[in-house]
Amino acid sequence: MPCSGTVIVVDDDEAVRSSMRFALELEGLDVRLYDGGASLLAAGDLPAAGCLLIDQYMPEMEGVDLIARLRERHVDLPAILMTAKSTEELRRRAGQAGAELVVEKPFGDGALMDGIHRALGPR
Q1: What's the pLDDT at 110?
Q2: At what positions is 4-aspartylphosphate found (predicted)?
Q3: For residue 97, what is the domain's CATH number?
Q4: Pick from 32, 97, 33, 88: which is nearest to 80 by CA?
Q5: What share of the chain is helix, strand, coil (3-state, %, to 5)?
Q6: Is the pTM of this model over 0.85?
């Protein structure tokens, strides 16, 4: 499936951001990294096409809250929420905020890349 756009990775862990950049660039994808919700919200040049890959548990703002704030600003890029612990309540909240997918760390079964390719594919 052809993909275009930029993957925006928001995670407070520098090692995670770095490894995500490496893996996504190996897939031929453009990547932008942000260390938290505030830095993404302060960015004035978000791409028109792409997807959001947002960690749930960050110190300053949870991923679900960041997705909701982006939706309030009419940022409608597909959002994928990453978490170490997925619960029914978190999946419900993520869906209400506008996340298309919740994926659990570690990413071993291909669900993350499949979700990214779906998000970047034809809409």
Answers
A1: 81
A2: 55
A3: 3.40.50.2300
A4: 97
A5: 40, 20, 40
A6: yes
